[in-house]
Amino acid sequence: MTDKKEIPAELKARLKSAYDADWRRDLRKAVPVKDRMKIPRQKMPEREAGDRNRDFGEVNRGLDAEAARAEARRCLDCANPQCVAGCPVAIDIPSFVKLVEKGDFAAGARKIKETNALPAICGRVCPQETQCEEICNLGKAAGSPVAIGNLERFVSDYERTAGEVFIPEIPPPTGRKVAVIGAGPAGLTVAGELAKKGHKVTIFEALHIAGGVLVYGIPEFRLPKAILRSEVDYLEKLGVELRMNFVVGRTASLDDLRKDGYEAFFVGTGAGLPNFMKIPGENLVGVYSANEYLTRVNLMRAYEFPAYDTPVFLGKRAAVIGGGNVAMDSVRTAKRLGAERAVIIYRRSRTEMPARIEEVKHAEEEGIEFHFLTTPVRYLGDETGRVKSMECLRMELGEPDASGRRRPVPVPGSEFVTEIDLVVVAVGQSPNPLILQTTEGLKAGKWGNVEVDWATMATSLPGVYAGGDIVRGGATVILAMGDGRAAAAEMDAYLKKP
Amino acid sequence: MAKILRRERLVPNMHLIEVYAPEVAKKCKPGQFVILMPDAKGERVPLTIADWDRERGSVTSVFMVVGTSTQKLSLLNAGDEVPVYVGPLGKPSVIENYGTVLCAGGCFGIAAIHPIARALKAAGNRVVTLLDAKSGYLLYWEDRIKDLSDRHYVSSRDPMFQTKGYISRGIADVIGEEARIDRVVAIGCTYLMSSCSEATRPFGIPTVVSLNPIMVDGTGMCGACRVTVGGKTKFACVDGPDFDGHAVDWQELFSRRKSYFDDEIRSLCDWEGRTFP
After folding, report:
1. Residue A365's closest CA among A47, A23, A20, A34?
2. Sequence-separated contacts (24+) of A159-165 with Cβ below 8 Å
3. Do the Cβ atoms of B226 and B213 come closer than 8 Å?
4. CB A118 within 8 A of CB A210
5. How many CA atoms within 13 Å lie on the side-chain side of A117?
6. What pLDDT sits at residue A5?
7. Residue B207 forms beta bridges with which residues?
8. Fewer Cβ atoms within 10 A, N terminus or C terminus of chain A?
9. Nearest-angstrom CA–CA distance, A76 and A94
10. Which residues of A80-96 are buried (b: 16+ CB within 10 A; e: fewer)?
C-alpha cells in the first residue's frame, strides 16, 4: 500500500537547489537523455536458486560499482522528480543517485542518511515497486524505472564495507530524555533522528536483540543480521542507549519512566499479536503462527539446532497460509529447512497477493508451489495431537470488498483433504495489546491499535507519540520508518517548547 | 546481562536461582514469571517467580532440569551472568480474601505456590497447604510453607508420610477434613494441575492453575503458548498464566507440551557430547 504525500515546499526548494548545483548540471550534459534511456536496467545478481534454497545465506549479492554507476546513469535527473513523493522518509533520491553516477558512493550514502538512518535495510526490504520506483519518470518513459532500491543498498553496503561510516556532528546535549519503546524500524528511526538533535535517547526493547521484526521476522537470507547489527551500532555511535530485556508495561510502566525523568515517549511496539483463522485444529502440534515460526528460526536460530538450543519442526510437506511477505519468508524458510514440498495456500489469486514482486519471484525460482483461490477449513491430527492433514476449500473471486480487492467466495462442495506435517499461519498480525493494557489514558483505536493524530503522530497522552504497526496494524518497514521520522520532528518541537 | 547471586541444588534435579534484577524485584507480584536464557545459544526459559527481595534487588526461582537450557542453568554459579533475564511477565495472581484457600504444589510448583500462599495469607485468608513429593527426599521449602500455613499437609508415595497417594487423593482428603474450602490454587507439572482440577471438579470448588506451556517471547508476540480455556484460545504468557483449571483443555496442553520431546533429547545428548567429551 502506497502512502504518497505531496512534496512539502521546504523539500521542493531543497531539491531545486540541489538540481541547480554545477556538478549536477555538468553531469546532465555529459550523457544525452536518449542515450540514458537506452541503458538497460541493471540486473541484481542473485545466488542460483537451487543453491540458495538450501541455506540461509543472502539471496541478492548486490550490484558492483560498475553496474551501480550504469544504473545511476539511467536516471534522467528530472527537473520535477516524482520519485521523492513516493518515499515515506523523503530521501533526496536524485541527489544520491547522481552521486553514484559521479562515483562518490560514500557521499551518496551520507545523502540518504540525512533523512533515513537505516538505508542498508530499506535497500533490501522496501517495496520500491509500489513507492519511489512506481512513479519514476523513466519507468513511464522507457518501461522500467531506475532501480532506486538496489542503488540505496549499493551505497550503504559500500559505506559499511569501506569502513567509511560517517558520524554526523551531534549538537550539544539538550539535557532532555526521550524514551523509545520498541527497537523495531519505527523506534530505531525515532532514536536516530532525536539523537541527531542532541536529545538523550534510550530505547527499551523486550527481546534480547534490537531490530523488532527486522530481527525476529525477516530471515537471514533476505536481511543478514550483521547488516542490522551495523545499523544499530551506528545509532549507538550517535549516542542512543539500548536497554534490552525491558518490557515497558511490565518491567516498568510508561508512568514509571516519566517519573525517572523521561519527557517524551515514542511507542513503537509493533504488530506483535499473531492472527489465527479460528478454524478447528489450529492448536494442533505442528501448526505455527508465522511469528512463532520465524522467531524460532531467526531470533533463536533454530536453523542451527542443536548448536543452538531452540528447536523448530522440519516439515516435509509444509503449507503456509497467506499471500504477504511474511508468508513468503515462512515458505522459503520451510524449503531451506528441508521441506520436500513447500506450498503457499492463498485464498485470492496471484494479482491480489500483497507480497513484494521480488519475493514471489524468488520463491517461485526456489521451487515453492502456489495454490491460489484455496483456503484451509480445518486441520486434522494424529493420535498424539500432531497435524497430519488439512481440509481445504476452493474459492472464486466475487465483487470487490472494502480493500478494493475482489472478495474470495467459497465454491460449494469443493472440499479436499491433503497431507501435510507443518502449517504456518501467516494471515496477518494485530497490534500488541500490552502497552494499551498497562498505560492509563492511552487511547485505543478500532482495531486495538494506539490512536494517533496523523498530522503529528501524537497519542491521547501529552508527550507520547506512536507509529509503525502499533498504529497501523501489519504494514511495512518503510511506513513505520516514515512514521518514526514524522513523530521525531514533532517530538523535537515538543521538547524545545519552553 | 544479569548477575546470578545464588544457585543451589535444593533436592536432586531441582535448583534455586537468585538473580540480581532490581527492576523485576521492584515490580513483581505473586503468580508472575521471568524469562531467562542460560547463554547466548540457549532457549528462552520461563520460570515462575518464587520469591524476591526488593531491598537486595533480587528475584528467586526454582527450576527442574529437563532439557539443555535448564541443564546449562544448573551448572551456573553465583557471580556468573545470564544474557537474558526479563520480567515480570504474565498477569499477577488475583489475591482476595476468599475465606479458606487450599494451596497445592508439587515439584517446582512448591516454590511457585509460595508467594501466592503468602499473599493469600496476608489478605486474610485461612491458608491450607498441600505439598506433593514422590519421596521424602524430594520435598523442599517445607518449613517456609508450613510457617505461613494455618494447616499443612503432604501427599507422598513414601512410607515415611501418613497420607499415601497422589495429590488428587490428598485434595479429597483435605476437603473431607476441612469445614469448607472456598478456593484451590494448584501449581506443578501439567499432570499435577490437571489431577488437582479433576479432584475439585465434583465439589465445584473454584480451582486456579498456573499453566506452563512452551513459550518463546513471553510478551504475546508468537502464540507458542496458546491453550484452550473454555473453548477459546488464550495466550498463557499474557492472558495468564493463571486460568480456571476446570475450563482448561488438558489433553491439548499435554500434547503441546510434548511437541519437542525428541528434539529435547537430541539437543541434550548433542550438548553433553560436546561439553563432557
Report:
1. A47
2. A159/A105, A159/A106, A159/A109, A159/A110, A160/A120, A160/A227, A160/A230, A162/A105, A162/A106, A164/A106, A164/A109, A165/A230, A165/A234, A165/A237
3. yes
4. no
5. 33
6. 58
7. B184
8. C
9. 9
10. ebbbbbbbbbbbbbbbb
Q: Which residues of A441-480 are buried (b: 16+ CB within 10 A; e: fewer)?
A: ebebeeeebbbbeeeebbbebebbbbbbbbbbbbbbbbbb
Task: Please state, in angstroms and as integers, the Cα–Cα distance from residue A453 to each residue in A255, A482, B219, B252, following that order.
Answer: 21, 15, 27, 44
- Lowest-pLDDT choice from A355-364, A365-374, B157-166: B157-166
Compare all CA atoms of chain B with the CA of A385 and give the residue at the minimum distance. Answer: B255
* Pairing status of strand A406-410 against strand B242-244: unpaired
Contact criterion met (CB below 8 Å) for A425 and A288: yes
* B1: exposed, middle or buried (Cβ count in 10 Å: 0-12, 13-18, 19+): exposed
- Best of A181, A207, A248, A250 to substitute, by most chain B Cβ atoms within 10 angstroms, is A250
Q: How many CB atoms are located within 10 Å of the residue A323 CB?
A: 24
**Three cell numbers, residue A84:** 521523492
Q: Which helix (H) or strand (E) holds B154?
A: strand B151-156
| Residue-level pLDDT at A2 | 41
Residue A3 pLDDT exceeds 70: no
Closest of A286, A281, A290 to residue A377, by C-alpha? A281
List the beta bridge partners of residue B186: B104, B209
Q: Where are the alpha helices (DSSP H) in A352-476?
A: 357-365, 434-438, 469-472
| pLDDT at A61 (0 to 100) | 93
The residue among A293, A80, A210 whose CA lies nearest residue B222 is: A293
Which grid coordinates are listed for A243? 536497554
CA-based nearest distance B266→chain A, Å: 8
**Measured between alpha carbons, how far is A179 from A228 in angstroms, rounded to an integer?**
21
ipTM score over 0.85, yes or no: yes
CA gap B118, B52 in Å, rounded? 12
Average pLDDT over residues B70-94: 96
Model pLDDT for residues A304-354, shown as the tens digit of each residue: 999 999 999 999 999 999 999 999 999 999 999 999 999 999 999 998 899
Give, in order, the Cα–Cα distances in Å from A229 to each of A209, A226, A436, A483, B37. Answer: 9, 5, 29, 22, 20
Side chain identity at B186, as an amino acid letter? Answer: A
Which pLDDT belongs to residue A237? 93
Q: Is A22 exposed, middle or buried (0-12, 13-18, 19+ CB in 10 A)?
A: exposed
DSSP tally for chain B: helices H, then strands E: 9, 15
List the beta strands (DSSP E) in A113-256: 177-181, 200-204, 241-243
CB contacts, 8 Å: B260 with chain A: 311
Query: How far is the first Cα of chain A from the last one, in angstroms, to the nearest whole number?
Result: 39
Of B222, B233, B266, the CB nearest to A306: B266
Alpha carbon B162 to its chain centroid, in Å, reads 25
